[in-house]
Amino acid sequence: MKKSLITGITGQDGSYIADLLLEKGYDVYGMVRRNSTENFERIEHIRDSVKLVPGDLLDQMSLMKLIRDIQPDEIYNLAAQSFVPTSWNQPVFTGEATGIGVTRMLESIRYEKPDAKFYQASSSEMFGKVVEMPQSEKTPFYPRSPYGVAKAYGHFITVNYRESYDIFAVSGILFNHESPRRGKEFVTRKITDAAARIKFGIMDTLELGNLDAKRDWGYAGDYVRMMWLMLQQDKADDYVIGTGEAHSVREFVDLAFKNAGFEIRWNGEDLNERGIDKKSGKTLVKVSKKFFRPAEVNHLLANPAKAYEKLGWQPEVSFDKLVQMMVDGDIKRYEKLTK
Ligand code: NAP
Ligand code: GDD
Asked: Which of 82, 120, 219, 322 to mutate to test ligand 1, by most ligand atoms within 8 A of the CB atom?
């Protein structure tokens, strides 16, 4: 039985890769950091099948000990301070966890299990103010947030340990991926959660920032298959993962609210723009300055040709299906809560 260690198992991707590895018959260890209250919601359904072990990306010895004790064959480093706006408020912490945390993991592997295979969760946020469209493995980085800068460090240190110490270390440059398990601070889930709440009359208006930002949104369940595939190759290599299709936040709002039974008409411009329900005339969405970022990433679009060709990977869930799945998930939750 192969052993895997997942950091960030309590997060969206960690929970999906844990599902996948259990299905494949792995012995699954998940690293969890100490919190004042447990946050195991996303892994509740597999709680008895995974082994939760304590550790923190900020604490070198905890990582060393884990790898020494477990001797994992595969390590998925999904833990990070992953919310972009927080990275401006806590840039040093973000650098420590999201950037230097990767070096701590790699150092632990180098000393304790140098033949383990290592997956690093890199991000399209590294492309930031993009220098070409679409973005591939060859596109230079231009990060626009402390988070993006920290991820660029994490990417290059992964490549460096592969080249310096011959560690099987790969970097998956993943574009935005979402699911019903997505954190509610990210824009997609914020929208689907609000659409459901408004439907049940427990919220009136959703406030958002930049409606023109475009993202290449895919489904997390599809993307974790790719993480696993990257570690099954003979040669360690880096891949861009995305759908090759981008949509604006405004389009996401339109579709999400449509799935919740509303039809939005847009009115006004810039900070005065409103999303109005055609039937009732109520304002369902308004723009608020507080959700704009100091430096925005306007348009991300993946060129996943290398992953398609070399790994035979293709996403299975379309944009429309993804939005529908997320809205349905939130509607079901509020249905139960309001019964
Ligand atoms: P997420 O839901 O925010 O989960 C982040 C995980 O990291 C949580 O389990 C969190 O634990 C853990 N964590 C944070 N700081 C830690 C620390 N100091 N030590 C140990 N664990 C820590 O993120 P996600 O969406 O699943 O993303 C997974 C990874 O992929 C992240 O590295 C993210 O930056 C990257 N990524 C995500 C996307 C995307 O669109 N989802 C795209 C590209 C790259 P707690 O539960 O204790 O907070
Ligand atoms: N969160 C949020 N909240 N974003 C908003 C809002 C709002 O109210 N209004 C507009 N947006 C815009 C943001 O300005 C951004 O351009 C876009 O929606 C997406 O924001 P997020 O969903 O927060 O994701 P992100 O693209 O910043 O970062 C996510 O994807 C990265 C990969 O590109 C995160 O998952 C990162 O961890 C990941 O690396």
From this structure: 82
Look up the domain containing 323 and give its range. 187-215+247-298+318-338
Same domain, 163 and 254: no
Instruction: Write the residue with the smallest CA distance to atom 30 of ligand 1.
Output: 121
Above 90 in pLDDT, residue 146?
yes
Q: Describe the crossing of helices 101-112 and 146-165 by its angle, rounded to 10 degrees.
A: 20
pLDDT in tens, 147-161: 999 999 999 999 999
The burial of 333, by beta-carbon neighbours within 10 Å (0-12 exposed, 13-18 middle, 19 or more buried), is given as: middle
pLDDT tens, residue by residue, 176-221: 999 999 999 999 999 999 999 999 999 999 999 999 999 999 999 9
Q: Are the beta carbons of 317 and 185 closer than 8 angstroms?
A: no
Residue 308 lies in a domain: no
Q: Are residues 77 and 99 in the same domain?
A: yes
CATH number of the domain encompassing residue 291:
3.90.25.10
**303 within a domain of the structure (yes/no):** no
Residue 124 CB less than 6 A away from ligand 2: yes
Instruction: Tell me the whole-structure pTM to 2 decimals.
Output: 0.98
Specify whether 41 is located in the same domain as 136: yes
* Cβ pair 325, 179 in contact under 8 A: yes
Instruction: Tell me if 57 CB under 6 Å of ligand 1.
Output: yes
